[in-house]
Amino acid sequence: MTKATIDLALNRVAAAIAARYHDSSPVVAGIHTRGVIVADRLREKLADIGCQVRSGTLDISLYRDDLDNLGTMPSLKNSDLPPVDWCDVILVDDVLFTGRTIRAAIDGVTDFGRPRRIELAVLVDRGNRELPIQADYVGETFETERTDYVAVHLEETDGEEGVFLLRKS
Amino acid sequence: MAKKAYFCYESPSNEPQSMTDEPRRKDLLDIHGLSVEEITAILDAAVPFKELFKRSVKKVPTLKGKQVLTLFYEPSTRTRSSFEIAAKRLSADVTNFSVSTSSVVKGESVLDTIDTLQAMRTDYVIIRHQMSGVPEMIARHTDASVINAGDGYHAHPTQALLDAYTIRETFGEIAGRRVLIVGDIKHSRVARSTSRILKMLGADVRVFGPGTMVPDDRPAWLQSFANWDEAFAWKPDAIYLLRVQRERQDDQFFPSVQEYHKFFGITAQRFARVRDEGIYIMHPGPVNRGVELVDAVMDYERSLINLQVENGIATRMAVLYWLKPQSTPLPG
Questions:
Q1: Which residues in chain A are contacts of B315 at CB distance < 8 A?
Q2: Superfamily designation of domain B157-245+252-304
Q3: Residues A146/A128, Cβ–Cβ less than 8 Å
Q4: Tens digits of residue pLDDT in B65-99
Q5: What is the model's pLDDT at position B256?
Q6: What is the pTM for the complete model shown?
Q7: Quick one: fold of A3-69+79-166?
């Protein structure tokens, strides 16, 4: 994906969110690292089309199921959510792959309270799920192999814009 | 930079997850031997852990199913409970092996005890021992991660980490800060570990204490003062009071605790000066009121003593998160 197609995809996602939440203000919570940036952009677009949302960030490192296998320590960031009891929460990430990050994020959100509903918005859905998890809002869907690596590069973190596929040959 | 392909095939420069660079270690035995990068990674990790304390649910599932064992051969209430709270907030199961009730009094050797613990499939062993080097010996004989919670006169690395964290949190950064450590420098593992970590992170550390208790073989950078006037003239940002270890007072390094207070304690008169100059006060606890300091210091707004206790839990959570027991089986 290029800068332009990323932007178009996020417009579609924002429009779909705005259509559902025209009379309530959900919490749009980005998952560190790039999910936070995608969430920031979505919030801007939602504001432009008159949809008010609240913001939050979530670090899922402490909820991972693979800490035992990691040779280095995942760096921790603050999770910062407004009160979520009886609110709608939209989790935002850059790539949806195995679903394990989202599982961890759902556990993380529920430690903050009991939301009315948790939804998921992603820029890219690359398939290959390992858990029964689906996104409610998807920017682009790609068919990939399990061994492929999908890299999302965003200006804010990577100094360039694009979605790339690294295929094991 | 324009990318032609909608989906192009080239090597990405980024990593899938944001990771720290340093490999995780099995044990934490001493500050000596750690790199500045490792120390900084632990202190950074402690920040989000402290944020957890503000939530109604203070617990995370990070160490779910892991077994933590505290093994204290010396009396301790706060360090042991601090580790216990830290481990429990990470969802680990904690067993306290108390020496007075254990088979140690029945004559079991340390290594036999460790064999027992190994058979119990412990993942983390937190040990305090009156002999220097025992945690290291245990670390060599077990797959579990060993954390030194104080060994003899040698080291107390988690105390040093929480002290460094507290100074960083209070002053914004550690580099360039002046910290005066007062008391029994010679027999203090706290002084040894805390002075080293602060020095590594760029602070200026000096010491002051009874002549019999300031060792001549201390590192060259650790200068000492001859009296309080000299020490105050140096304009310290924080004064770190060491606990007078009454239980180790058999050797008579100073005549009496009253004498100690008069010459080395924060008396009412010195406290006035501390307050005027806005100097912060630290102490590893437990405090001997009327010995290291007068009662009023406990209510002083620049006393960091309770903050040190709070930060102790967060930094110990960060240490448990950082260590990697070898007992963990790898898949495949």
A1: none
A2: Aspartate/ornithine carbamoyltransferase (3.40.50.1370)
A3: yes
A4: 999 999 998 888 899 999 999 999 999 999 998 77
A5: 85
A6: 0.90
A7: Rossmann fold (3.40.50)
